[in-house]
Give the backbone structure.
Amino acid sequence: MLDTLILSRVQFALNISFHILFPTISIALCWFVLFFKIRFDQTQNPVWMRAYRFWVKILALTFALGIVSGVTMSFQFGSNWPGFMEKVGNIAGPLLGYEVLTAFFLEATFLGIMLFGIHRVPSKMHTFSAFMVAVGTTLSAFWILALDSWMQTPSGFEIQNGVVHASNWWAIIFNPSFPYRMTHMLIASGLTTAFLIAGISAYRIQQGDAKHAPQLALKTGLIVAALLAPVQVFIGDLHGLNTFEHQPQKVAAMEGVWHTESGAPLLLFAVPDESQKTNHLEVGIPNLASLILTHDLNGEIKGLSEFDSEPPPVAPIFYAFRLMIAIGVLMWASAWLACYQLYRHKTLPKRTVKWLNWMTFSGWFATLAGWYVTEMGRQPWLVNGLLSTQEAVTTVPPSHVGLSLLMYGLVYAILLVAYIHTLRLMARRSTQIEEYETPNTPSSSDPVFSTAPGASV
Amino acid sequence: MISADVLSIIFAGLMGLSVIVYAILDGYDLGVGIVLPINTNAETERDTMIASIGPFWDANETWLVLAVGLLLVAFPAANALILTKLYLPVALMLIGLILRGVAFDFRAKAAIAHKLAWDRVFKMGSILTALTQGYMLGQYVMSFEQSLSSFLFCSLSALGVTAAYSYIGSTWLIMKTEGELQKRSIRWARLSGRASFIGVLTVSLINPLVNPSVFDRWFQFPLMMFVLLIPILCFLAFLFNEILLARLPKPNDRHCWLPFMMVTLIFIMCFSALAFSFFPDIVPNKLTIWEAASAPESLMFILWGALFVVPVILVYTAFSYKVFHGKATELRYY
Ligand code: HDD
Ligand code: HEM
Ligand code: HEM
């Protein structure tokens, strides 16, 4: 039977998976948009303004979806995981509190000025607002990732009467896995957005948009992607080493190591079998996994059978990890190839444009896959070694959780379709707008809201 | 180091502050959504109405996140109790908030043919949010009792809160619009004002009847002389608005901001009355703020931050209201 635990887990996973799609874009898109605005301020070249205008609208839409799904998240702790706050509330509370105080208000308030205030404040003030929004989103990632990392690698606490108390805030925030997770996630956001920008611009070009702005955006996206992709592979490797040190069980699941091995191969493909505790159809490179993780061809990797607690679900972690890496490598190759073609021929061949269009949402898949590795790899713990998921769950009857799950699922499905559809629509529509209007005269072609004739200042 | 008991009071105060600020701020933008006319030929009116709340709604909603956050941070036991008791209404409210939040953006970006549909979603979402919030307020007052009479009371409270939000929303519009739309807003304000009055009156009559401790607290000499100011002020504000609204709009748009201020006063009075009725219970008759609080060292850690950050938040919020001061104009991203 479906019990409250399973339903609550599915619901949490659904909500956070939906939520993270939008922050992943908005964190980096804020910086991209700020870049467009600053370039316009410097050069007064209207093309930058066009790029700004187009992407700021997408930012607004993405933000709206991020906010509403985030508000939902903040209610879930109390309603579905009351045990979480009872046990570790002294740590989680302040971190969440600081996120609201330092990040959410900042981004929400300045977003209003950034989106709608361009004619009401001096240009410098407007650029400053865009900067504050970008700082706000990055700060919010900082706090929530500190919390998530603390749940993976808790430190700086003591236990009194079965409840976790903070003893050292510095150690709590900068816990062992935090620097890696923060860097890896910020770059993930950068890559996801770079490919989104390149992809949508490619789509506009495919639709016959011969203007300068999409080409400029495409180029910006590609250069950023080409710079970030190799860094991400490198950081990801360090991240894995860190996990190997602090959560060896998770790494064993990621690499599909059931029994302790020396000189373990790097499995490119396999079918993990939970019941027989072995893999089928293994294709691997001998000794490579040991080399990567221990810097020794014959290094030892502890197998899942050696750990006391029950193992996390192996197959999904194993596949998700490979999906993320495959996309990472693909991103690297695509970005470098396209940049090379741009450099050599000044334009992109049709095939590359088509490919970039295909890659538009690739970052979403890698990001989700990465989070699934991280979060499922932590099971059966909610806070590693301190609190099991089972202990934290609510007492609400399953029927209620099932009902709310159904409602969220339905709403999210519709919204996701509407979001993607609207991005495409906006791209097609902008194709019909004239090239160089003077940047600050309102045009009738793409107002955000059309006016009531009677309602002027 | 501040003692644990005092810390609990400070945090209860902070939480109360964010709840009332939320009710006023998100109240007006929910209210605008509730009164939104959804007939096909009112498109320009809708545009102006939504433009009047465009730059603010996001920050307004953040006060809700802060209130829940503080509840979670400072009183985890109360958070768990309230949110599990109100599981389904909370989920419905969140669906309402999701729908209106996204409709707001989609309406401007989706195909023209879908704009009216998103406007309807915006209205439905706003109504759903207001109704569920009112319902939860009722449940809270009734200590989550499950009975027919409790259900009736909660339904009444749901309607009351919806009326109150429409009231503050329409007075916001009186301040932010002009011409025909302003005249319509005045009519909406008069209607919803009367409905709110009935709502407030019934809730304040029933509350002391069902909660004997509340009755004792209010009708206790000599405190009574003093606290009766709350309902009296509230009544005067209603009366004043009733008279004023009949005379608006005045030449040069004088006093167009006054009704909104009066409704704000009403909100503050009603909230104080509730707080006075229940303090120090954070969940009426079940949990006091001292039983529900978390560890002092964690509260101190946030308090330091809050002392520094909250004034900064107030400053830039004020700045944003200054930037968008005056009648609502078309919203553009450039
Ligand atoms: C602040 C805490 C926090 C943060 C930032 C995240 N998670 Fe998480 N996650 C949890 C706190 C948590 C949790 C409360 O601890 C859950 C709920 C049930 C559980 O076992 O852990 C969880 C479970 C959970 C599961 C279900 C795992 C399972 O039950 O087997 C998935 C798939 C995700 N999360 C995905 C994500 C994604 C995509 C995130 C990206 C933002 C994310 N999590 C961030
Ligand atoms: C359990 C986890 C999470 C919770 C409870 C949560 C909560 C929230 C809330 C309440 C908001 C809305 C703020 C507002 O009203 O403006 C929000 C938005 C946001 N969240 Fe989360 N969040 C979670 C996970 C994450 C993660 C993992 C990240 C980043 C890595 C993240 C980054 C953001 C950002 C950048 C925003 C701003 C809105 C946007 O960009 O769309 N969140 N979140
Ligand atoms: C190709 C090289 C990559 C490697 C070696 C790598 C490595 C890793 C590892 C080991 C983890 C799990 C860490 C843990 O749970 O403790 C992880 C998580 C994650 N990865 Fe990757 N990754 C790579 C590429 C990417 C790409 C291209 C993206 C997205 C665009 C991405 C996004 C993420 C995210 C969002 C997480 C979860 C958050 C975190 O724990 O940092 N990764 N990655």
Remarks:
- The first helix of chain B runs from residue 4 to 35.
- The longest strand of chain B covers residues 281-283.
- Chain B has a mean pLDDT of 84.
- Chain B touches chain A through 79 residues (CB under 8 Å).
